[in-house]
Design goal:
Residues 1124-1157 are annotated as: Disordered. With 1219 residues, the protein is an alpha+beta fold.
């Protein structure tokens, strides 16, 4: 009977062992002992579910002992196989033999698979295998084929498993007799075999690649020389290092066969409770990352031909291998740093469905939690961790390609330890087809969803981690998928908080630390991003680029076939906030808005996105970005952009920018991938136009733009708003296209509306002189809501244009288009042309130069002496040495190209940026209005109009025009000698200039007919036919053609009036206008003098010229209305500070014939006396009314009158200080 068992066992051994003969099988009772046997690598490969890129090159056992049960118990008791040592070597196929596969011969017994489930098959399925020691050597070739030296070779992994036990169980993984285990398959359409694998200990050693010992350049490192590279990294890996030790675990194996015993499915589920790596050195970590990269490349290579793989027929068509690790702890310890990585609930599974020629692989990775700490720094810092925000929703979305991918192999569902109740931190699904299919089929599809993360950036840690990842994680193009393959990637990150600590005092000279008091109030920055996404796929719908209306991108239209010559990317976020952190809030908890209590929001973006589309020039796979000679489209859009900035915060952000720039340069230096070395000789002689795309377009769209400049304050880091800039519907597009021997660069700007509001400054002196009123705060007039009152100084009135189809179109503020054609060769210089068309409509300007000067003083731009303030000078000095100075440095790109370029047919490949030969410029200023508001007009506004902006033009002089058109054109090219040949390049690009003004009018401070009341306080003129029309045409004279400067002559002058003009002005109004212009010119001169001092030109211009600029208006306007030319009562003294027509003040007759200074002093004294007397009477009246039963409305009116008198007193003090 035992002979029957032996014969059945011999049938199984012939399948599993190489060169097995019956003579080796000698039964001694119920025991068979064999030794030095080689296992069939193909059979082992199929039973373990190994990827096709791996070969079992060696599988040898030491002592092989078989213990047979009694024949009567053969149906219920297993055959026990005991092996003392099993040596396995797994080696990745090279690219040359990837499709050849192993050439091992198979036993004839394998051909009988699928003929039925016989007695020998049942014995084989019920075997129990005990292995004392398993030695597995794994060698991959990840990145080694790309060169880079022996230092970059992927190391070997030596895996040692002790006391391994494999036995048969029932469907619930319980040990029962074999008959009960087979009963589950009864009345089923499949045959199920359940096995459980256990091991006592597992250790992994990383060994250096053998090529490393043969590298002569590394021989010195073995002899005790410094083992650091030029960038300070330790990469030399000699002697090996133990990565893991003492890892126990178990595996649950399910084999599914058809009723005819043909292999159908294999599922292996490994469960490891805990994995600990207590100490890993820097060279060991770099070697481990290179090994993992090599293993990743090996698992995902798409160049393996499955039909050429002569694997065993035991290989199942469906396989699922999953690994679950409950806890992972990895410590990287070195003399200079220490990092700790803790991961929880890691799941890795790989499902394969194959029909023998094509294999579909679905990879799933889930991570429950992750913490990365830097324990070397003091205090220790958590670099990466899940966000403290609670996850409100359980996003269990599964990509469509991962749904119903593979029918279940284990029939009873997931195990209890596989069921994860919580939402994983990271979820990855990736589908890959092998071999890679031709387009338009996708070769791979990947979806990554990540829950909220918090990252704390530290310079040293970032540099080291970047160096680690650059050494091991970077994968060369073409290592996994061929260039012709089509792929898609989608990444979603729910929330991301990036904390950037920064100590400004360490970035500047210690002697200057006293100048950064408020500056040092910030300890870092926090970047908060919500719903961050990134997608790459040729099938993306790009709404920003509007490719359906782009004829050059016809191959990207819907319905067109896709291939590897097309690339589409999109990235964006629903909300992005950059905040500055105080030292108390840098490590604080987040509130419900995602911010800490001590943060100051600097920049906010809503619905920001970027879209990119590219096409190669010749239809070949797009491997170089951007594609040389191809087509590129880039679109950037933002729904809302808000910014709050003060001087201190601006300089802190600039310091942060400089710091990040320095760190980025260090990261770029340590992150170089040395496996990819570009030979500069290969790129020499390539022209500029051969390196760039031939058709490029970049667009920027911002729906709402709001910028606020805040006041500097040592007590309040957010300060008070001083300037507010509001813009709506901004669209900018720049494109270039290569046209044979020239490049056409086109740009367009469309801006719907703009508004600039500035703070009121009338109450500043009242505060500075200690007489602050109830409505003045920090030198600003404060509104009822507690914020400073802002006044519009620049805004837009959008008109409407009625089209022929009846649709009304809003006229934008700015509409500019430009086309610049630049030849590539000197021979085509006559093709150099420039065409510009611009229309600036609806501009409204309020205030005046006095107000601008006051704002410059208020903002700290100008100091008390009229020159640049101390803070501005220090700020400019810091900027000149800061990061912005690098933006204005010349780039050596063109010079390098000139050195490498080789002229071909007169073309040197460098753009000719000379003066255009053909110019056509048309600039139109449509519907503009200038309101001239002086000190007196603003005083009237605050005294009598309750600070309202309505009807501002009624109280001030203003000028408007309907159209100001400027045209500049080149003249027609003349013929030479009557032969019809052009005379070559013109001497002057512009030969005809036409300037025309329509509807020019100046209105004095009084109500006008035919006006309507709009927003922003300026009444818009409805009648467009009023005013003066002027047109001037200027041409370049043909005389003196050899001169460098052209001689211009007026060719035509037109002056017309469509309707009668009524000009009514009194002498007092003219005097007031003259004095107002004098004050404005004086302010303009002082501003110009301050600018000259800022540019440090007072030495070359002279102090006398600076002084003359400061009194520019007094030099001219005082002579217009001198006392000898004016009648008595109209002297400048009597009109210098005359109130508006709404006031009741009149000058005293005794000051008419006095000098101007004496008259001003006496006038101020009279005003001061009148104000004080009025305040005294008002106080007495207020006291009487307070004791009586008068209404509260009277008391409110008296209080308001008191505030106005206080404002009048501050203005009087301002006048006295200016005398």
């Amino acid at each position: 009977m035992e002979a029957i068992l032996a014969r059945a066992l011999e049938y199984t051994l012939k399948y599993w062992l190489k060169s097995f003969s019956r003579d080796q099988f000698k039964l001694q009772g119920r025991t068979v002992q064999l030794s030095n046997l080689e296992i069939n690598g193909d059979a082992l490969h199929a039973s373990m579910g190994l990827p096709p890129a791996l070969n079992v090159t060696k599988a040898k056992v030491g002592k092989f002992e078989i213990i047979l049960p009694y024949f009567s118990n053969a149906q219920v008791e297993p055959i026990v196989i005991q092996i003392d040592k099993l040596d396995l070597v797994l080696e990745e196929n090279s690219e040359l033999d990837a499709s050849s596969g192993p050439n091992s011969t198979h036993s004839s017994s394998s051909s009988s698979k699928g003929s039925g489930y016989g007695f020998a098959d049942k014995l084989a399925d019920g075997m129990t295998i005990q292995v004392t020691t398993v030695n597995l050597l794994l060698e991959t070739r990840g990145g080694a084929q790309c060169g880079g030296g022996a230092t970059w070779a992927s190391p070997l992994a030596s895996i040692t498993i002790r006391n391994l036990l494999l036995y048969t169980t029932n469907e619930n993984w319980q040990v029962v007799n074999l008959k009960e285990a087979r009963d589950f398959s009864n009345n089923k359409k499949f045959i199920y075999v359940f096995k459980k694998l256990e091991w006592e200990s597992l250790s992994i050693d990383l060994l250096p690649h053998p090529d490393m010992f043969a590298d002569a350049s590394l021989a010195c490192a073995q002899e005790g020389a410094p083992q650091r590279d030029d960038d300070g990294a330790k990469r030399v890996f000699f002697g090996g290092e133990r990565f893991l030790e003492g890892i126990s675990g178990e595996a649950y194996i399910t084999m599914q066969r058809t009723e005819l015993n043909s292999p159908l499915g294999l599922e292996v589920q490994l469960h490891i409770p805990e994995t600990i790596c207590p100490a890993l050195s820097e060279p060991g970590l770099r070697a481990f990352l290179r090994f993992m990269t090599g293993l990743y490349v090996c698992l995902n290579r798409g160049d393996v031909d499955l039909q050429a793989q002569q694997r065993s027929k035991e290989a199942a068509g469906r396989s699922l291998v999953s690994i679950v690790v409950d806890h992972i702890f990895l410590c990287i310890k070195d003399s200079e740093f220490q990092l700790e990585l803790l991961m929880q609930s890691l799941l890795f599974s790989r499902a394969t469905v194959s029909d023998g020629s094509i294999a579909n692989n679905l990879t799933k990775v889930m991570l429950g939690g992750m913490f990365l700490r830097d324990t070397f720094s003091r205090p220790p810092c958590i670099l990466v961790q899940p966000s403290m925000q609670a996850i409100t929703e359980n996003d269990g979305r599964i990509p469509d390609f991962a749904k119903n991918f593979c029918p279940p192999i284990y029939p009873l569902g997931d195990h209890q330890w596989q069921k994860n109740a919580g939402t994983p931190l990271i979820r990855l699904h990736s589908l890959q087809l092998k071999p890679s299919p031709v387009p338009p089929s996708f070769a791979s599809q990947t979806v990554i969803i990540c829950q909220p993360l918090m990252i704390h950036l530290q310079e040293e840690s970032c540099l080291r981690i970047t160096s680690f990842l650059a050494d091991g994680i970077a994968v060369n193009p073409g290592d996994i998928l061929p260039d012709f393959s089509v792929n898609s990637v989608a990444f979603v990150l729910k929330e991301l908080d990036v904390i950037i600590p920064l100590d400004v005092s360490q970035l500047h000279n210690p002697a200057d630390n006293g100048n950064w008091t408020v500056h040092n109030a910030f300890a870092g920055a926090r970047l908060h991003i919500e719903n961050l996404f990134f997608s790459e796929s040729p099938k993306l719908k790009l709404r920003l680029l509007n490719l359906e209306k782009d004829a050059a991108c016809f191959c990207l239209w819907d319905g067109q076939p896709i291939d590897a010559s097309q690339k589409k990317w999109t990235t964006g976020a629903s909300h992005l906030t950059l905040s500055l952190e105080t030292s108390s809030s840098l490590n604080g908890m987040l509130n419900s808005n995602g911010m800490t209590s001590g943060t100051w929001r600097c920049v906010e973006l809503q619905d920001a996105s970027v879209e990119v589309a590219m096409i190669s020039a010749d239809g070949n796979p797009l491997t170089n970005v951007p594609p040389p000679g191809g087509i590129v489209r880039v679109g950037v859009a933002c729904q809302q952009y808000f910014s709050n900035t003060s001087v201190e915060q601006l300089f802190f952000v600039l310091d942060l920018y400089a710091y990040l720039g320095r760190v980025s340069e260090k990261i770029a230096s340590v992150g170089k991938d040395r496996r990819q070395k570009i030979n500069r000789n290969e790129s020499s002689g390539v022209r500029l136009m051969d390196k760039v795309p031939c058709d490029t377009a970049v667009s920027l769209a911002v729906k709402e733009l709001r910028l606020r400049f805040l006041e500097s304050s040592a007590s309040d880091i957010e300060g008070m708003p001083l300037v507010q800039f509001i813009g709506e519907d901004l669209y900018i597009k720049v494109a270039h296209r290569t046209l044979g021997g020239a490049i056409a660069i086109s740009s367009s700007i469309y801006w719907q509306s703009v508004e600039v509001d500035c703070v009121e400054t009338e109450g500043s002196l009242a505060y500075e002189n200690g007489t602050q009123t109830s409505f003045v705060e920090n030198g600003c007039l404060v509104a009822a809501n507690g914020y400073p009152q802002l006044r519009a100084v620049f805004w837009v009135h959008n008109g409407h244009k009625y089209q022929a189809n009846g649709i009304t179109r809003t006229i934008p503020f700015l509409d500019i288009s430009m086309v610049h054609v630049i030849p590539l060769s000197e021979l085509d210089r006559e093709c150099h042309s420039l065409s510009v068309s611009a229309c600036i409509s609806g501009v409204r300007l309020g205030g005046g130069m006095n107000y601008a000067e006051a704002l410059l003083h208020r903002f700290g731009v100008l100091g008390p002496d009229g020159g640049p303030s101390e803070g501005l000078s220090k700020g400019l000095e810091n900027l000149s040495t800061g990061p912005l100075s690098k933006l204005f440095k010349g780039s050596p790109l063109i010079d390098n190209l000139k050195e490498d370029a080789s002229p071909v047919d007169g073309k040197d490949g460098v753009l000719l940026l000379g003066i255009p030969d053909d110019v056509d410029v048309c600039i139109e200023f449509k519907d503009w209005l200038f309101a001239l508001e002086g000190v007196q007009e603003m005083a009237d506004r605050w005294w009598f109009y309750n600070h309202e902006d309505e009807g501002r033009e009624e109280r001030c002089w203003h000028t408007s025009f309907q159209s100001l058109l400027v045209k500049a054109k080149s003249g027609p090219k003349n013929e030479q000698n009557g032969k019809g040949k052009p005379n070559g390049k013109r001497k002057y690009p512009v030969e005809l200039v036409t300037v025309g003004v329509e509807g020019l009018q100046t209105v004095k401070p009084q109500g006008q007919k035919g006006v309507s009341m709009p927003a922003n306080g300026i009444k818009e003129v409805v009648e467009t036919s009023e005013g003066i029309n002027i047109e001037v045409s200027i041409v370049a004279s043909e005389e003196n053609i050899d001169d460098e400067m052209a001689n211009w002559a007026v060719e035509n002058l037109k002056f017309s009036v469509k309707q009668p003009i009524e000009a009514v002005v009194t002498k007092d109004e003219l005097q007031h206008l003259a004095l107002l212009c004098k004050s404005e010119v004086d302010a303009m001169g002082r501003i110009a003098a301050g600018v000259l001092k800022l540019l440090k030109l007072e030495g070359s211009i002279g102090q006398a010229a600076i002084d003359q600029l400061s009194n520019l208006g007094s030099e001219g306007f005082d002579k217009i209305f001198t006392p000898d030319k004016l009648s008595k009562g109209t002297s400048p003294a009597s009109t210098s500070f005359s109130p508006s027509p709404h006031a009741s003040f009149s000058p005293s007759p005794r000051v008419i014939n006095e000098s101007p200074r004496t008259t001003v002093e006496s006038t101020v004294a009279s005003l001061e006396e009148a104000v004080l007397d009025s305040q005294a009477k008002l106080a007495a009246l207020f006291t009487d009314l307070s004791t009586s039963e008068s209404s509260a409305q009277h008391l409110a009116d008296i209080k308001q009158l008191g505030r106005k008198l206080a404002s009048m007193q501050s203005l009087v003090m301002q006048l006295r200080n200016k005398i």
